[in-house]
Amino acid sequence: GGLQGGSDDWRQVASAADASLLGRLDQAWRMARAEAEAAGFASEVEALGPLVDPNAALPDRLQPPPGTYRCRTIKLGRRGEGTGLAYVDYPWFACSVETTPGGDLVLTKKTGSQRTQGLLYPDTDRRLVYIGAQALSDAETGFPAYGDRPERDQVGVLERIGQSRWRLVLPWPKQEAKLELLEIRT
What we know:
This protein is 17% helix and 36% strand. The chain is α+β, with helices and mostly antiparallel strands. The longest helix has 23 residues, at 25-47. 38% of the residues are buried.
């Protein structure tokens, strides 16, 4: 059955609460971007180009080929009222995409204090759905399985936005932001 438990349908894996986050993806884009720009980060947001354009997803070649990548996290909007920063741009870290012997496609952000790992599921001609979980701090060596620690669960979409360039979009993440982007490049 592979890591996906024999299903390639993300709807059979995601909790109802997490699936509803994807249903509010457009709202997360609008609110997070507006909040970051209103907080004085309009030029930084604009400089990110297609990374922050909700309509930048390209068709075809959705899956990043297995291998190593560099990735960086951008957080837009505040998770709670008046808490934290409305825009954060982290430096580049190491990521990988692997295909398991069972055929599952696994995305892993391998370095940094907030690391993520999860599976990529087919969805539309412009996106894959990501279901995974987050590891926190360098002391945590493994990753929780999706569903084992709901406060660490993540759901999002992976989209190709250029030649050898993808983004993982996490709407309403459980920490720090309204929208989290993981830019992935070769």
